[in-house]
Design goal:
Layout: H1 5-29, H2 45-53, E1 62-67, E2 70-76, H3 80-87, E3 91-96, E4 102-106, E5 126-130, E6 135-139, E7 153-160, H4 162-166, E8 171-178
Antiparallel strand pairs: 1-2, 1-8, 2-7, 3-8, 4-6, 5-6, 5-7
Helix pairs in contact: 2-3
Length: about 190
Amino acid sequence: MSTPSPLRSRLRASAALVPASVAAVLAVWSLNDPAQPGPTPPAGPAAVAVARGAGHDATGGHVILRLPDGLARVTLDDTAPARAFAAMLPLRLTMHDPMGQAKSGQLPATIAVTGADRVVDPSVGLLYYWAPGNAVAIFYDDLGQTVPPPGLVRLGVVDSGAASIGKGGNRIPVRIELADRTGTHPGSSS
């Protein structure tokens, strides 16, 4: 059975909109929210030294996301971008969710990603960095969409609390902090 020509044209037009929609979401990630200022961390190798000097193991370390509906725990990858992200912590971000598949928020400083592996088809349960918008994102649902080049840089994997990430609506406050060295959650102040 052949698809009628007008329907085929609408299907092609819809398929062409998916990458444009994802690009629009990524553009939203690049918007700064002045209502949720975060500290401006030092940049470069000194920032990693600051995190290590504070008694935290930023390499392959764990971070806690304090969300309105609970906690999530993320294990960071052992990469330079993940260590640079850890050096920025603790942070308070307002995370947005305009497409119903990822929570994302803008960082107060950029992360160097030269030579880092990039992905255009993000996986559920991973923490990524979007360099053009200077944003982090956690994908909690797979809608079959891809992101435009240059792609996302993987920072880590969600170990627990994934259900809390998808809750909370299109705009939620999140505190991201390093877990202490024993792997337990740091103090409960937000």
